[in-house]
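Re: weekly structure request thread

Next one in the queue (135 aa):
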Amino acid sequence: MARYDQIADVLRQRVGCGELAVGDVVPGAGELAREFGVGRDTALKAVKLLRNEGLLALGRDCLVRVERRAGHVVEVPGTLVEVPAVSVVKARMPTPKEREELGLTDGVPVLVVCLGDLEEVHPATGTAIRWTREA
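Done, posted below.
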């Protein structure tokens, strides 16, 4: 197993046991490199892997984005989008502008809710869609 995979596994375990909770800042690449005795690039590769999985989010700092409980991933916080039954929902990768506006990391898709000519774009992670019945 590659060293970056081992580091990613340790970080997943730390989230799973609650040592790192949702919203906690993940140690920086330099600190992870020292802790695991690897180069900074290897530590960055582990963090990037977890960002692409949606476990971590990058803003000013790298933060824990989701919580793992008993083998299940729980998105925190979540958003429920209620849409009319005639709506169509598509998944796609965001444009650079959407990625910036929504604060998305690389690899996170969006859900596009279409109702006629209207479109709403939502991050795919942490978003649930509920179709409502027509009145």
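Residues 89 and 113 are 5 Å apart (CA to CA). Residues 79-132 form one domain.
Next request, please.
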